[in-house]
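---------- Forwarded message ----------

FYI, see the Band 7 domain-containing protein record below. Original note from H. follows.
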Amino acid sequence: MAIWSRRQISSSSNFGLPGPPGLGFGGSSGSSSPTYFQRQTSLPANTIIRFVPQQTAWIVERMGKFNRILDPGLAILMPVIDRIAYVQSLKESAIEIPSQSAITADNVTLELDGVLYTRVFDAYKASYGVEDAEYAIGQLAQTTMRSEIGQLTLDHVLKERANLNSNITQAINEAAQEWGVVCLRYEIRDIHAPEGVVAAMHRQVTAERSKRAEILESEGQRQSAINIAEGRKQSVILASEALKAEQINTASGEAEAILLKATATARGIDAVAESIQKGASDAQSAISLSVAEKYVEAFGKLAKEGTAVVVPGNVGDMGGMIASAMAVYGKVSEGQKKVLQTRTIEAGSSTTENSGTTGSADARDAVLESFEKTARSRK
């Protein structure tokens, strides 16, 4: 923020023919005119005709009293009675805030410096509202910074630099409104803490990171153990469910097989019964022969499977054995015989009884012949 006051006016005055610098309309030829790109060190002289640079405000006093503010462009001044008292730059400017000490809420002394960005929005207030606006704003920024840092701890100062900058800017704007200057932003450049505090902060960071590493490692081990246990649980559950399904399938298959066998047996019994019913006495003889053959075959298996054989006492009496086998069959089919006898009595046919007796005798002869063949083959 460039501000020039009438205290910086040089003692030499020029009353020659007015004209812009460098055009030869007036003024001493030996005096050097400053350019608009350089910070001027003295106020411009009244040469009647002046050109005001862009983004610059010139304060004109007439006979020591404020008269007007010259806008950028051509300006005509009254000789002798008009004087350019102040020159205000309307551009944004940066003010360096020197390093200063500040004590935090936890009694830590910090060294801070910053940069303040300001701009003049009212040239009249900036000229007559304060003696030196740049110096006043710099001092205000320093005191405000100390006040704001005194309310925060060291950790909050390091974490909340953005909020701290915003609070300092707001406090400066509240006081600088009467000076015609607005604070656009404030930036803290460097924060220097004592060496002991810095070393303690480094140790704290190291300890914090070690703590985080141990916590993460323990969490990883815990999660790994949970995952392993969960996997074992799921495997046991799946194995038990598989075994259950297998047992259910096996039982279902066995039940179905038993049911099929029972159905087949029932059908076979029905077929045998139907055959017996149709064959009458001839069927009874065939059944007697089949039972006798199985009886003899069972004794033959006893001799093959073991060294000790349990046989009836009348082995030599082959007729007795056949008679025993027929007696077994007779007991098994006693009910069927009663049914046949009932039918025979109702029919009253004696011929059927004789043929049944003949068939039984033929069955006995066939069984005896089969047994003798078996005995001869063993010899």
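H. also flagged this: Residues 3-89 form one domain.
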